[in-house]
Write a structure and sequence with these properties.
The complex is a heterotrimer of chains A (182), B (381) and C (86). Chain A is α/β, with parallel strands linked by helices. Helix content of chain A is 36%, strand content 20%. Chain A has one domain: Pyruvate-ferredoxin Oxidoreductase, domain 3. In chain A, helix 1 packs across helix 4, helix 2 runs antiparallel to helix 5 and helix 3 packs across helix 5. The longest helix of chain A is centred in the last third of the chain and has 17 residues. With 381 residues, chain B is an alpha/beta fold. Chain B folds into two domains: 243 residues, 3-Layer(aba) Sandwich (Rossmann fold), CATH 3.40.50; 128 residues, Rossmann fold. Chain B is globular. Chain C has one domain: Alpha-Beta Plaits. Chain C is built from two helices and two strands. Chain C has a two-stranded antiparallel ribbon. The longest helix of chain C has 5 residues. The chains are: A alpha/beta (182), B alpha/beta (381), C little secondary structure (86). Chains B and C meet through helix 8 of B and loops of C.
């Protein structure tokens, strides 16, 4: 079982990131579970969402204290939040920034990966929507979920509620970030 | 069909499959997602229930009472202060033997104000005459809503049922859920056929005064019915297993690795899931430990608990509630159940997970370690 | 008092059974109407809390508890409360 923590700001859609991740993992025939940091959602405030992905049934229902992977939707959070808190030794940190990992002031023992999802989002959405695009980076780096399942999860989440156009844009953005991620 | 959905959605889908005629609703965190989904289904034409917007939870349960008295299947949901506001009508619904089903997204009671999970709200309604079933997963939440109607509407029961799920800790979790087919649920759960209903063509009196010469008989009748419902809850669990190939222990309690265990944790709700993980871990270290999940808190399945504890030396009870000035409610009840037994295990109480405090594997391990400590109740802070 | 049937939920299945409970015996004063003074204005009929005055403004003594509201409300003082005890 791997445990994931997603850092974002209220309104950036960290909770949706977790939901689409869990749905995609299930399409890949894995068990999954996701939940928000309970009851603290306020626009702009630092928020967290959590996810677990496993080959077996997930029983544990405590919060996640020692994640294997941390996703940071907004690099400005690095100034105010300790995003590496509890991250396992050699754990993976995926950060949305235009900087190189070596330019960030973060402990090098972690596997630090960066991708400029904001630039891609601005091109595709015309707005800095990064919560879904960052899943492309998650898929490429961790291989825990496939790009194919991610697009299915996008359809399941957005087709009914937001329509075809939004779903297509999200898939395009996820794929672009996937391809750009090294 | 299996899908990753929120546990609140699982409750709403369970309700939708049972097609209640009337759903009075009043929002309160962390229950709101349940009635929001139901409002969506009604708006999208997927559910033909009459939705009643009310001005308080007191009105929500009163409207449910009125609708149920008309012989209509009814659902509502609440939590915390909302359930407390329903208090007086809860007794009326049970006393009038109206099989309302209500979801409670368990949340702490003020003060201090707190929107997060513990069981204080529903435990405080322990004596109201409602059957109380506590669930630990989104799947169990969906399945138990369907079972709840079958239990409640049974002519030998006719009592309201609370389906309690941990607020946030379960209600806001997304996980895979098998969504039952409408035609299969229709086969399992027959149309509601009330024993009596308000009908101008055949007038009856409901809710009359019970003088001192009859009140006790009515109370005893309801109490006896509650005790008899133990068998109906078991039956419904078995029938559910036959229909859907899934069950939850015997419907009243569910055990995990208890057969050869020396020590066990007794708990309700999501704390049971985390306990399973700890049991597996301690078993790998050669420790003979297990879990007793109390699903039905009312009726309290004394005999079932006693018979699964034949070889148990000690039980650590995890209470997500506290009866201020004494101890946790489940601890009190378990100790009372064993009082007349010749062979009784050591029973130790732990207060944990109040007001959204996370119950971690370390808490459960500490409880296992301290089972044989002499003091009565400890707090796992 | 006869013990009522202990039904499920205390439901009383027989409609209108309260009519069996004749409350005329509770009365210590009875209302008596002076038909000469009565204008048939209907106030007594309207105000009687027990529906014991009919549309002809006659009192049904099986159910009248002798509360005296009719006598009190009558604008023409056409109703007198008379002692039951003889």
């Amino acid at each position: 079982m791997i445990e994931i923590r997603i850092h974002g700001r209220g309104g950036q859609g960290a909770v949706t990131t977790g939901q689409i991740m869990a749905i995609a993992a299930f399409y890949d025939n894995k068990q999954s579970q996701t939940f928000p940091m309970f009851g603290v959602e306020r626009s702009g405030a630092p928020v967290q969402a959590f996810a677990r992905i496993s080959d077996e049934k997930i029983n544990i229902r405590s919060q996640i204290y020692n994640p294997d992977i941390v996703i940071v939707l907004d690099a400005s959070l690095l100034e105010t939040v300790d995003v590496t808190s509890g991250l396992k030794e050699k754990g993976t940190l995926i950060i949305n920034t235009n900087k190189k990992p070596s330019d960030l002031n973060i402990n090098r023992n972690f596997n630090i990966r960066t991708v400029d999802a904001t630039s891609i989002a601005l091109k595709i959405f015309g707005r800095p929507i990064v919560n879904t695009p960052m899943l492309g980076a998650f898929s490429k780096i961790t291989k825990e979920i496939s790009l194919n399942s991610l697009t299915k999860a996008i359809d399941e989440t957005f087709l009914k509620t937001k329509g075809k156009k939004i779903a297509e844009l999200n898939k395009k953005a996820i794929t672009a970030v996937y391809n750009q991620t090294k | 069909m299996k899908k990753v959905i929120e546990a609140s959605t699982a409750v709403a889908l369970g309700v939708k499959l049972c097609e209640p005629g009337v759903i009075p609703m009043y929002p309160i965190t962390p229950q709101t997602h349940i009635v929001e989904r139901l409002a969506d289904y009604i708006n999208d034409g997927l559910l033909s229930s009459e939705m009643i917007h009310v001005e308080s939870e007191h009105s929500a349960i009163s409207a449910a009472l009125g609708a149920e008295a008309m012989g209509v299947r009814t659902f509502t949901a609440t939590a915390s202060q909302g359930l407390a506001l329903m208090h007086e009508i809860l007794f009326v619904v049970a006393g009038m033997r109206l099989p309302v089903v209500m979801a409670v997204a368990n949340r702490a009671l003020s003060a201090p104000i707190n929107i997060w999970n513990d069981h204080q709200d529903s435990i405080s309604e322990r004596d109201s005459g409602w059957i109380q079933l506590y669930v630990e997963s989104a799947q169990e939440a969906l399945d138990t809503i369907i079972q709840a109607y079958k239990i409640a509407e049974n002519r030998k029961v006719l009592l309201p049922v609370m389906v309690c799920l941990d607020g946030f800790t379960l209600s806001h979790v997304y996980e895979p859920v098998d969504i039952l087919k409408q035609e299969d649920v229709n086969k399992f759960l027959p149309q509601y056929n009330p024993l009596f209903k308000l009908d101008p063509k055949k007038p009856i009196t409901m809710g009359p005064i019970g003088f001192p010469n009859t009140y006790m008989e009515f109370r005893k009748q309801t109490h006896d019915t509650m005790l008899d419902s133990i068998n109906i809850i078991k039956d419904v669990n078995n029938q559910f297993k036959e229909s859907f190939n899934r069950s939850y222990g015997n419907g009243l309690i569910e055990t995990y690795k208890i057969e050869d265990a020396n020590y066990a944790i007794a708990a309700m709700g999501t704390a049971c899931s985390t306990t399973r993980v700890v049991v597996d871990e301690l078993r790998k270290q050669g420790k003979k430990v297990g879990l007793i999940k109390i699903k039905s808190f009312r009726p309290f399945p004394k005999q079932e608990i006693i018979s699964c504890c034949k070889n148990i030396k000690g039980i650590a009870v995890i209470d997500r509630n506290i009866s201020l000035g004494n101890e946790g409610a489940l601890y009190t009840e378990l100790r009372s159940a064993f009082y007349n037994q010749n062979k009784k295990p050591i029973i130790k109480g732990f207060i944990a997970g109040l007001g959204g405090r996370d119950i971690t594997p370390d808490h459960i391990k500490t409880a296992f370690k301290k089972i044989e400590n002499s003091s009565d109740t400890e707090w796992l802070l | 008092m006869k013990k009522p049937k202990i039904t499920v939920g205390a439901v009383i299945e027989e409609p209108g059974s309260t009519i069996k409970n004749k409350t005329g015996g509770w009365r210590s004063f009875r209302p008596v109407r002076d038909k000469k003074k009565c204008t048939k204005c209907g106030l007594c009929w309207q105000f009687c809390p027990d529906n014991a005055i009919n549309e002809n403004f006659d009192v049904n003594y099986d159910y009248c508890k002798g509360c005296g509201i009719c006598a009190n409300i009558c604008p023409f003082k056409a109703i007198k409360m008379v002692k039951e005890e003889k």
